[in-house]
């Protein structure tokens, strides 16, 4: 499996009864030793050991991951929205009327704090539609290769979480099928996520904009239109998993209340199950937020995780590294 940061190790599969120290190498080196790391490894050992009563055949080792806030950062706002704002600025010369027309004028004058949700949706539709699928993919690829985060100054793909990259690799090498199930746009993520996470584009499930099949000067195209077919969030996540994958995951990973139903559905199945929340507790290396945050709110999910014994990653304590080293 190819990820941006590839962890190399020789994995010795141990049974659930064996201690974590029986591993000849560390499959999750960016995770500090502790309960969360130990339970992940024990779960993987359990479902991959053919002598275990909780053994799961490779075809059924389905793991689903949220993206924003779970596999990469999501502050000060979702990165796909930052993409839309950058596109407004890039296209402003072709639209001189935007300088006096809201919400575009708010972006061009730097008054982002005055944007309402409807304003953001308007700009997403403006920058994500009216073009072919190929044109949109190329636009996203150019942006992700050149854009920098407004706070850290890092390329966005440098703000993926190293511990989660290791976890993706660890599961992949144990014959799991990793899927992204995100509220982000599926076409936006597919333009770059396969290269960064090593997850094939057909395993990326997200919010879908409408499309139409058109003939433009003898060339057939799938063109992106302004409608929204599915907003892949909350209760829609397990439904889209069923529609796209056709199987209940045995492991799910999220960071917000928008992922709650996905984790609920995963853990309602029979046999060994793993549900994990990434809790953003590190104001020094990333951001600290949960119950009151407008982006990535973790409130009901945090309570349910404690009640049901789901794993909760304390980013400040459980991760010795956040972003990949350069």
From TrEMBL:
The keyword Hydrolase applies. GO terms for molecular function: hydrolase activity; metal ion binding. Keywords: Hydrolase, Magnesium, Metal-binding, Signal. The keyword Lipid biosynthesis does not apply. It comes from Vibrio hepatarius. SUPFAM superfamilies: HAD-like. Pfam families: HAD (PF12710). InterPro entries: HAD-like_SerB, HAD-like_sf, HAD_sf. This is Haloacid dehalogenase. Residues 1-22 form the signal peptide.
